[in-house]
Amino acid sequence: MQKNHLTMIAAFLALTYIGVPWAIGISGRTDFYYTLTSVALLSIASAGVWLTFYIGRINIGQGAYALAGGYVSAILMTQYGLSFWLTLPLAGLFCAALAVLIGLPILRLRGVYFAMITLVLTEVMRLSALAMPITKGAKGITSIPLPGELSIFGITLIPDFSTMANPKIGFYWMAVTFMVIAYAVLWRIVNSRLGHLCRSLQQNEELASSIGVNTAHLRVITYAIASFFGGIAGASFIAISQSIYPSSFQVSDSVNFMLNCFLGGLGYVFGPMLGTLMLYFGWDLLFTTGEYQLLIYSSLLIALMLALPNGVLSLFDRKKV
Question: pTM for this one?
Fold first, then answer.
């Protein structure tokens, strides 16, 4: 089984780093770089939502942390002149700290109560961005510089994006690398002692507490990690678009992050990745249906969830990761 997993991972990395660029080069459809970059970054945010599900909480507020991470990175770059590569972890840490403050009271809630509170977080963040002078209100923050050179000890690891003939390729490599790292971290968490404790919360919090598990502490740590993922995804998005507005991430985005997890499979670490890919391309493919797009899209989602309650990945492997 371990050998099979390694083979699948190697095949995925070869497809992502070699196969996709080769296919795009042959077809000449360089616009697909932006599409796949978006899918990779959205899947990172969805991975954070999946981790919240792992402790038995329905998180519909990831858009709030993506928006907060984007604004933190944009403000640090445009107003303080910091490099994107420095603002990226700072944006994630800011969102993690914010999640701790918000999570301490609301993580005590369960089921629909926690879900409804997280549902309003994205709208609260959007209204805050509209009201605060530092975010420049509805005008947003524009003319955000492209990521500069990243070097260590004089060795250039990543060149300045502004010097690239086609920055889309650079953003694709950046996004998929972030995605690979995020899911490697997620897999490691799930298969660590922390992950085993999180699974105990999902099954029975009272029983976990009775055997000495600090459930409150564990919930906050997990929620902070999940929000860190959201902040990283949001900060990466604004580097690509070079602008951010209060409407850059909305409630619908938070709902989609959750749907990605359901569609791919809540019992599988890589479920959010597959779910994001299917949801993103599925919506685009139905564009030709015009006014019936949303109706068909919603009907297909409901049908898939009824037919495959454990997600699409359950078709390939009945054993949970």
Answer: 0.93
